[in-house]
Structures are given as C-alpha cells and as structure tokens.
Amino acid sequence: MSFKNSTALLTVGFAALTAAPALADISADDIWTSYQAIAQTVGGELTATATRDGNKVLYTDAKLHFLIPDGKGSLDILYPTLSYTNHADGTVSMDMAGTHSYKFVITGPDKKSDQISANIISTYDNAEVIASGNPDDITFSYAVDSFAFALQNLDLGASGGNSNVELSLTGTGSAAQGSSRWTQGDLITLAGQSVISGFDYSMHSKDEDGAVSTTSATYGEMVSKSTITLPTGGMSIMNLAAALHDGLSIKATGTYGSSTTQESVVMDGEQVSSQTITTGSSTSAFAANAEAIQLTAEGSDIGMDVLINAGLSMALKTDIDQVAGDFRMPVSASGEPQDFTLALGLKGLDLGDEIWSMFDPSEVLQRDPATLAIGLTGQATLLQDLLNFTEMKELAEGNLPIELNTLAIKEFLISAVGASLSGTGNFAFNNDDLTSYDGMPAPSGSADLQITGANALIDRLVEMGLVEESDAMGARMMMGMFTVAGDGDDTLSSKLEITEDGQISANGQRLK
Predict the structure, then answer these.
(1) Where is the signal peptide (predicted)?
(2) Of the candidate ranges 153-167, 191-205, 215-229, the one whose mean pLDDT is the lowest
(3) What's the pLDDT band for 395 if we cut at 50, 70, 90?
(4) Residue 320's pLDDT band (boundaries 50, 70, 90)?
(5) What is the pLDDT of residues 85-129, one digit of tens each?
(6) Distance, CA of 132 to CA of 94 (rounded, Å)
(7) What is the chain's mean pLDDT, rounded?
(8) What dihedral angle (degrees, nearest 10) is formed by the CA atoms of 498, 499, 503, 508?
(9) Does the pLDDT at position 8 exceed 60?
(10) How far apart are CA 348 and CA 128, in angstroms?
(11) How far apart are CA 181 and CA 190, in angstroms?
C-alpha cells in the first residue's frame, strides 16, 4: 500500500480514536464507550483505567487487544495517556499537547521467543480535537498546523533473525483538518473526511547482508473520504463473508497531488543503485459490501530514473503518461451469475534512449510511446463465499468455487514500435463440458482482431538481425492463414469464431 492511501486511512483513525453541531450533551465517558463498541465490533477488546479531576478525565494504561485466529498469537496496541475535558456547552475536547507514544506488540504462539514490538512516537503542533453530538451520534472535528512521527525501539524478538538488521522511519505532515462521525443503531457507522496539505517521510534500513537502503518521499495535498458500516454483533477475520451479510461495508475515495520518491542502496560503502520516481495527480476508490469488492485507481505523469552501479553500470529512464485500473469481483455465493470487471491501461509508455540502445543501437525500430490496454467484463457464478476463509482453506488445491459464464473483451490494445494489435469479442462458457478443452469450460463466441504495421515490423526485425528471413517468411504465412487484408496499407483483420459444438473458424475458414 502506498503512503498516500495508508496516510488517508490513518487520518480517519486519528479522528475516530483521538478525537454536526451539538445536538445534546456528551461526555468523555460517552466517547470511551463508543471506542469500546467499535473495538468489540471488529473483534478486539479496549481497556483502560479512568481517573477524574474536575471536568477532566484521564484514561491510563489503555490497551487494544486482538487475538490472532487459530491460536497464532495476539496483537496489542498500548496507548499513551488519553486526556479529555468535558465542557459546559456539551462538547468534549482532547488534549493533544506533548509527545504521544503508541506501542505495537505482536506475540506468536511462543510468547517467550515469538514477539515483535515497536513504538510510534507522534507530536502535534497547535492541534484541536472537539467532539459533539449525543451518545449515539458523535462528531469529531479536528485541525492541526503540523504533525510528526517516528518509529522507535523496534524489537524483532529472538526469532527475528540477524540482530544487525536495522529499520528507522520518520515523517512530518503540514496542515491537516477533517471530521469523523460515529453513529450507532442497528449498525455502527463511521464516516470521515480529511485534507492533509502535504506529507513526507524518510526510511533507513539495513538487511542481514549489510546492504543499507535509504528512502525519502514527499507528497502533495491528500484529500480522502470514507464511510464504514460495522455489524454490532461483532465479526471474525476468518469469516468476513458473514460480516458482509450482517452489514459490513466500506466505501473510500481519495485524490492526491504530485509526489517524489528517492531511494538508494549502499553496500560496503559503495552505492549499488539509486532511483527516483515522480508522479502527478492520482485518484483512487475502494468499495466492499456483500455484493462485490471493487477497486479503481488512476495516476498520471509517472517518471522513473534508475541508476545501477553493480556489475555493468546502467542509467535507465521511463516515463508514463497515464496508468489506470478497475477491478470488480463478486464475493458472495449465489445461484445466479454475477458481474465482474478487470481493466488495466497504460498509456504513453516512453522508454529512455539508454534502454532502447541496449537492443536497438542503430535506431531501426520506431520509438513512439507505447500503449497497453485490456478491458474485460463478464459474469461468474460463485459456489461459495470467497471471504469465508475457514471454508476456503478446506478446498482441494486448484479447486476454485467459481464458474465462468460469460466474458466480453471490451478493449484489447497493444501499440508499440510502429505496430498495433487490437480486438474485441464476446464468449459464453459451458460449465457442463469440462472435457473438450482439458478441464476448461467449453467456450463459444467470436472475436474480431485488427493488426497494423506487422509486415513493416517484421522487416525491421530482419534488418536488425533478430529474425532470420526464413522465420520471417513463416510468420507471414501464419498470418495469412488467420487474417485477411484490411482497408489500409499494411493492415490485417481476422474474425475468430467458436461454435457451441466445438467448431473453430477464422474468417469463415474452418480450422477445427
């Protein structure tokens, strides 16, 4: 997960765990009760000791405890002292002054040797967190001029390997503001929004071989919104399918400004490699409910410069105008086919001269930016809930509880080095026939393909010495078997058809 997305999620957590106009009085006790309800809903237990001093309430020794399924251990989060002030206007504020230390402890089956722990130290400049509303409908509003955090006291335990392994992480953020609303009824709903003006981090690590890696990154403005609904009866991480049927859902969106990431690796005092990655603006959206999981993302103006000094020194450069993806997968068992989507796109892939010169120093091939795109939709029948991990573990290897019913090729395009291949198609699948195609459901349907610049590309490959004349002739003969001449110069087309009785033809000529 990128720091952009993880920071957005942490911001929502900051509002929910640290922090509508006031509809009625609330108290620090109401806030703590809401925290405990959320923890219980996601399978955890939140405990603390409360002390009171006038209108102030302190929660000390606060701990959030989770058991890892199948007796694999536990996860504990130990919080700093949490200080709340009850106000006469019915609101509650949280004290964010000073340094806040959060300790994370992961314990395996062997409590003596299987334990990993670390502290996250955070500070906030001119931070304000105000809670208002009523006990079943609390809104947290927060703002901070800047914040900083650092990873400290990393302990990999007795089973953590080489004691020389090192890891440090620090980060800062500029002005941030947002809100988070918690409501409780038949479901618990958490709705949040945040804006962070900027963010950066630096990470230093050393592996067991002595290689030292240093990474630094800077991100522009990040805007996020999310809504999470949780079933009040609790849920098990091993059976999220049940939780989804009980009302669990997630919806999150984010927009992000430009970013720059730099990384270098040093071994024995010598730089082995370095790279710089830059990105323009990007967006993301995620949704999960009982019907499906869907993730879409898009990024622009991506650049990568890589310098490799190990062995043969190389300087590599790549630029990409746009990267986009869309993935939707049903997750709940149903007797009826359900829609799915898989789309990936890469536009304007421009390789630097250093890369081209490795295999085409004479510049025979066209060097126009490449485009790769695939867009698939279809329907599939799920025979089992995919997120019931307990049942999924019992399936025989390779036995997926999914039947593919239909597949539509909405877009298929490969365009590079002066040639292109594109196509569309529609297919249906007979899941009662698993013998005709060696275990694959028998397909029927058709696809239309278009090829441009293929003969010119073959000529260039022959000129470069990468393809022999005899092989080029064989390739042209093969294309002649499956294609017909198109409307333009050096264009070919083909219509491939598969009938329900298993016949295969190309442009009306039967192949099987």
Answers:
(1) 1-24
(2) 153-167
(3) confident
(4) very high
(5) 999 999 999 999 999 999 999 998 877 778 899 999 999 999 999
(6) 12
(7) 91
(8) -70
(9) no
(10) 45
(11) 6
Cβ-Cβ contacts under 8 Å for 156 (sequence gap 6 or more)? 116, 165
The first and second tokens of residue 223, run together, are 């805007």
Between CA 60 and CA 51 the distance in angstroms is 8
Q: What residues pair up with 186 in beta bridges, in sequence order?
A: none
Tokens of residue 276, six digits: 């710089």
Q: Which of 170, 193, 196, 163 is nearest to 181 (CA)?
A: 193
Distance of CA 244 to the CA centre of its chain: 20
Q: Which amino acid is present at 461?
A: L
Is residue 434 scored above 50 in pLDDT?
yes
Contact, 172 vs 3, CB < 8 A? no
Asked whether 284 and 5 are in contact (CB, 8 A), the reply is yes
Query: Cα angle at 295 between 291 and 299, to 5 degrees?
Result: 165
Q: Is 438 exposed, middle or buried (0-12, 13-18, 19+ CB in 10 A)?
A: exposed
pTM of the model: 0.87
**What is the chain's Cα-based Rg?**
29
CA distances (Å), 458 to each of 32, 370, 419, 473, in order? 71, 18, 10, 9
**CA dihedral over 374, 378, 380, 385, signed as positive or negative:** positive
Q: 82-86 and 146-155 as β-strands: parallel, antiparallel, unpaired?
A: unpaired
Residue with tokens 């806030």: 31
Distance CA 320, CA 469 (A): 34
What pLDDT score was predicted for residue 162? Answer: 56
Nearest CA among 84, 76, 163 for reference residue 119? 76
Q: Taking Cα atoms as reference points, which of 360, 365, 403 lies closest to residue 384?
A: 403
Closest-CA residue to 250 (of 274, 277, 214, 286): 286
